[in-house]
Amino acid sequence: MEILIPLTASLVLLLIGYFIGTILEKKHYQSINDREEKFINLPSVTMTYRAASKETDMSKYSKTQLVSGGVVVSIDYFKRFLALLRNFFGGRVSSYETLVDRARREAILRMKEQSSGADMIINVRLETSTISSSAGDSETVDSIEAFAYGTALYK
Amino acid sequence: MLLTNIDIIPNKNIIEHFGLVSGSTVRAKNVGSDILASFKNVIGGELQGYTSLLNEAREEATNRMIQQAQSLGANAIINVRFSTSSVAQGAAEIYVYGTAVLTDS
Q1: Contact yes or no for A73 and B41 at CB 8 A
Q2: Window A:27-56, CB contacts with B under 8 Å
Q3: CA–CA distance, A130 with A126 (Å, rounded to integer)
Q4: CATH code: domain of residue B37
Q5: Which positions 6-25 of A are in contact with B (Cβ < 8 Å)?
Q6: B23 lies in which domain range?
Q7: Hey, is A92 helix, strand or coil?
Q8: Which 57-86 residues of chain A touch chain B by CB within 8 A?
Q9: What is the CATH number of domain A4-154?
Q10: CB A115 within 8 A of CB A42
Q11: Which of A36, A52, A89, B63 is exposed most, by the fewest CB atoms within 10 A?
Q12: A142 CA: distance to closest CA in chain B (Å)
């Protein structure tokens, strides 16, 4: 009987994580796709200034500004459980792939949102860092931070 | 103070280099956002408490870098880079560095 209580608790967490997590992720992807379409005319490239100046005439840009965007995204309970199983069998951990994908795209979008009116963003750099669980278990990664920064060029 | 992460400033000439300037800050998350985050860990999604914490930390580190550059007499910082490292459980170090320069107007 005593063993049933933690078992049902984690089962409930798994179900909550699965259903709400899936809905939230779908919503997030929807909003990412919508906003990416909105910013389709604002290219962000990893080229340096020198490389970019070979492609376009840079003398028309009079103002530059450092822009950045960051986000911390957490994985849900169900996917963490899936990843744990994957650790056992090996192979692609697709549940974590969507996590980093979401975080990076969100960070780039926030950077673009900060640079309204800009013509392009050059020298974009992306950075990712992990935040491990506060429960003292440093093996499992709970959430990741994605941070994007670059130089916005204004006319 | 003009900040860029490219190695020149368009349409301006760099008159003088002052070398490396940097700013850093170590931040720990507070208990409130920690509890919220542990709930959020079940369903996944953005941890807004941590996002704003790291944004504030970056701002502070950048401000410290700018102060250092100002005290040197610079009016711009080029080639700015950000880096993050976790020094302890629940604490993050944000480090910003760049090259302080003086440009003509």
Answers
A1: no
A2: 28, 48-50
A3: 14
A4: 3.30.110.70
A5: 13, 16-17, 20-21, 24-25
A6: 2-103
A7: coil
A8: 58-59, 61-62, 64-66, 68, 70-77, 79
A9: 3.30.110.70
A10: yes
A11: A89
A12: 7
For the stretch A113-152, pLDDT in tens is 988 888 889 999 998 887 765 545 555 567 888 999 999 9
What is the rounded distance in angstroms from the CA atom of residue A52 to the CA atom of residue B74?
Answer: 26
Domain definitions of chain A by residue range = 4-154
Asked whether A106 and A129 are in contact (CB, 8 A), the reply is: no
CB A152 within 8 A of CB A118: yes
More reliable by pLDDT, A128 or B38 = A128
- Rounded Cα distance between A49 and B8, Å, is 8
CA distance A85 to A79: 10
pLDDT for position A143: 80
**Cα distance between residue A41 and residue A90, in whole Å:** 41
The DSSP call for residue A113 is H
Count how many residues are written for chain B.
105
What total number of domains does chain B contain?
1
Is the pLDDT assigned to residue B92 strictly greater than 60? yes
ipTM strictly over 0.95?
A: no
SS3 A50: helix
Half-sphere exposure (CA, 13 Å, Cβ side) for A77? 19
- Stretch A26-39: mean pLDDT: 91
Chain A residues with CB inside 8 Å of B45's CB? 21, 24-25, 28, 73-74, 76
Residue B11: left (phi > 0), alpha (psi -120 to 50), or beta?
Answer: left
Q: Is the pLDDT of residue A69 over 60?
A: yes
